[in-house]
Specification:
With 415 residues, this protein is α+β, with helices and mostly antiparallel strands. It has 3 domains: 229 residues, HUPs (Rossmann fold, 3-Layer(aba) Sandwich), CATH 3.40.50.620; 61 residues, SH3 type barrels (Roll); 115 residues, Elongation Factor Tu (Ef-tu), domain 3 (Beta Barrel). A hairpin with a 5-residue loop joins β5 and β6. α2 packs antiparallel against α3.
Length: 415
């Protein structure tokens, strides 16, 4: 990840443009004379890596961004290799490089949440929580502890951010290239976090990014994209569960499972049940250590709850429904729905506590007219009604609500 710029430097240009800012006149820059990077004005920026790291490079005055590829997974045993690659990129374009080791915090916050959710019979989304707590939270807190100042935090996410003067809110928007859009994974970012973020790739296609990387001879220009939170078998990260019954919806025992952590709602393979029709996991009951299975029609859901809501685009009114589209997982289509905001809701134990961003908003500048709402008075959960029932809405996954290209809110699914 890249922090821009060095202490004492300022960036001109709005962060909501989706394009990198430029140094104001008189600010210093750093340039590596042996670099093959074109001789343009570049930000002199300390580069930070934290497990899970990403190798992201800088920008130039022609409003181009050079992206150093993505890892195969965002967590694993190849952290040292990733740091070496990021350092090579930083050296290539002539910017300083530093490392903030957050492996202990990642273990204590993200992996513990990941494990506890499976123990509760839920299917977590560690990437969404990692962005809010680690990448845009504790990483920047680490910068401050090192005495490093910055104006904006630039990452390689495919998304866009814009300030809306009418509402005084920072807006999170989808990327221009729909197939690469990552706004879903940023839906828990606070107003303070969005207000200090730059997503230059949000205006580019993946083809354009690769082209820019090749033209500038970046060391990892042909690197494969990351595919998931963990490249291996995720069950290796979990404690071994206890065997228990597999039942149909009438309560009849059909077989035995080897631990509820091995199952998720909608799963069809690996059930070990002989049947003339296709069977799916339709419910996981952690209290009784039971996996319930049924037919495809039993997977259809029209109503569900969403907890720990993070409001982004506009502040809701209590008891007034919002017409929107919702994604119930990253790869799901956008579903027409009605979201009814509620306050002091069920507060189901979807994980231990609300998202903790590690004081990431402290000391951040926001526009004078920005509205800093007291989140304690906002609706913290909601009731969702889909226009058409949808298959395998899964507890623990993140529901993200959209109005056109704008993210309205994000929260965690509870049935």
């Amino acid at each position: 990840m890249k922090i821009t710029p060095e202490k004492g430097q300022r960036i001109e240009g709005a962060s909501g443009s989706g394009q990198p800012g430029r140094l104001k006149e008189g600010a210093t820059t750093s340039r590596n004379k042996t670099s093959q990077y074109p001789p343009v004005e570049k930000l002199s920026a300390p580069t930070f890596e934290s497990p899970p790291p990403s190798s992201i490079t800088g920008d130039d005055s022609a409003n181009k961004i050079s992206r150093a590829g993505r890892r195969l997974s965002c967590f694993g045993d190849d952290s040292e290799e990733e740091v070496r690659e990021a350092e090579a990129v930083a050296r290539h374009i002539g910017i300083p490089f530093q490392v903030v080791d957050l492996s202990r915090e990642y273990e204590g916050r993200i992996l513990s949440y990941f494990r506890s959710e499976y123990a509760r019979g839920r299917t977590p989304n560690p990437c969404v929580r990692c962005n809010a707590e680690i990448k845009f939270g504790l990483l920047l807190e680490g910068c401050r502890k090192l005495g490093l100042d910055y104006d904006y935090f630039a990452t390689g996410h495919y998304a866009r951010v814009r300030f809306e003067a009418r509402t005084g809110r920072w807006l999170l928007l989808k990327a221009r290239e729909a197939a690469k859009d990552q706004s879903y994974f940023l839906s828990l970012l606070s107003q303070e976090q969005l207000g200090r973020s730059l997503f230059p790739l949000g205006e580019l296609s993946k083809v354009e990014v690769r082209k820019i990387a090749r033209e500038n001879n970046l060391p990892v220009s042909e690197k494969e994209e990351s595919q998931d939170f963990y490249a291996g078998d995720y069950r290796k990260l979990l404690p071994k569960g206890k065997p228990g019954p597999i039942k149909d919806l009438s309560g009849k025992v059909l077989g035995q499972h080897d631990g509820i952590e091995n199952y998720t709602v909608g799963q069809r393979r690996g059930l070990g049940i002989a049947s003339g029709s296709r069977l799916y996991v339709v419910r996981i009951e952690a209290e009784t250590n039971t996996v319930y299975i049924g037919k495809e029609k039993d997977l259809m859901t029209q109503k569900f709850k969403v907890d720990n809501l993070n409001w982004i685009a506009r502040l809701p009114e209590f008891g007034k429904g919002i017409e929107a589209r919702v994604k119930v997982r990253h790869k799901s289509p956008e579903l027409e729905c009605r979201l009814l905001p509620r306050k002091s809701g069920p507060q189901s134990e979807i994980f231990s506590g609300k998202v903790d961003r590690g004081g990431a908003g402290a000391g951040r500048a926001t526009p004078e007219k920005a509205i800093s709402a007291d989140v304690s008075v906002l609706p913290d959960w909601g009731e969702v009604t889909l226009l058409t029932p949808y298959k395998a809405v899964t507890p623990g996954q993140v529901a993200v609500f959209y109005e056109g290209e704008v993210v309205l809110a994000g929260g965690f699914i509870d049935l």
